[in-house]
Design goal:
249 residues; two-stranded antiparallel sheet; 7 helices; binds iron/sulfur cluster; single chain
Length: 249
């Protein structure tokens, strides 16, 4: 297994503005796991994984948490394990990236109008953060959303990411149930209109079981691209369906 490299775009300034400290201690269980992994794999990243992509992004993608041999090793979201393969190939197809993805943080890949974050920025055991950890990490997501001045769409990958995004926007989960392919009209805590998109997570499990196919994932991005060509001041231009806040296509 190759050692971790400095994450692209975060080399000199890490931790970037708004990112947690490298030794963030807000989640005791994750801190213990981080320390174990630092002993086992001293060359790996083994700290909170910073978001990837510029702050001029209009699309923010929110995943669940770093994977052990993925982002926790390489320091870049969705890089180094299976989950990145479908995500980055789809981003390339829809013009949200440039360069080539080679599952290494120094592969030269750059995101275009797009940024990728995680709901929980530290590696959880068995890829399963507990509720307290999701809650503890949410302020970093809230801060990130407020910093992205050109943000128009947030894509949540999976139920946990969706739930924390809804709460980061100051909304109630019961008003915005997770549903693959959904496009919700929402506003953030400052009243800025946004669209919240849902997709099943592009994990190996979901793709191997057929819960998420490449065609399903591409359909989500088709909806996002369609949303982004609407005037930014009027994201509700699409006709609302009966479901509260739901945009129809
Ligand atoms: S998951 Fe987030 S809040 Fe918890 S220790 Fe890591 S960076 Fe801090």
């Amino acid at each position: 297994m190759p050692p971790a490299l400095t994450p692209a775009g975060h080399g000199k300034g890490f931790p970037a503005k708004g990112e947690p400290d490298a030794d963030c201690a807000l989640c005791p269980r994750l801190v213990r796991f981080r320390q174990q992994n630092r002993s086992l794999y001293p060359d790996w990243h083994n700290r909170p994984v910073p978001s990837f992509g510029g702050e001029d992004a209009c699309l923010l993608i929110v995943g669940l948490a770093p994977g052990l041999r993925g982002a926790n090793r390489t320091g870049r979201p969705f890089t180094g394990d299976f989950a990145g393969d479908l995500l980055y190939s789809t981003l390339d197809r829809f013009g949200f990236s440039g360069g080539s993805f080679d599952a290494r943080p120094d592969d030269g890949l750059r995101l275009v109008d797009c940024r990728i974050a995680n709901a929980v920025r530290c590696l959880p055991p068995e890829n399963k953060p507990i509720g307290a950890e999701v809650n503890a990490c949410r302020p970093f997501l809230e801060d990130e959303i407020s910093r992205l001045k050109g943000l128009r769409v947030v894509l949540a990958l999976g139920v946990v990411a969706h739930g924390t995004v809804v709460r980061a926007l100051g909304r109630k989960k019961k008003d915005f149930p997770f549903r693959h392919g959904a496009l919700y009209r929402v506003s953030d805590q400052q009243g800025r209109p946004l669209v919240l998109a849902n997709s099943y997570h592009c994990s190996r499990y979901n793709t191997n079981t057929g819960r998420l196919t490449p065609a399903m994932f591409e359909a989500v991005f088709t909806g996002i691209r369609s949303t982004l060509v609407q005037p930014s001041s009027n994201p509700g231009r699409k006709k609302l369906s009966k479901r509260k806040g739901q945009l129809s296509n």
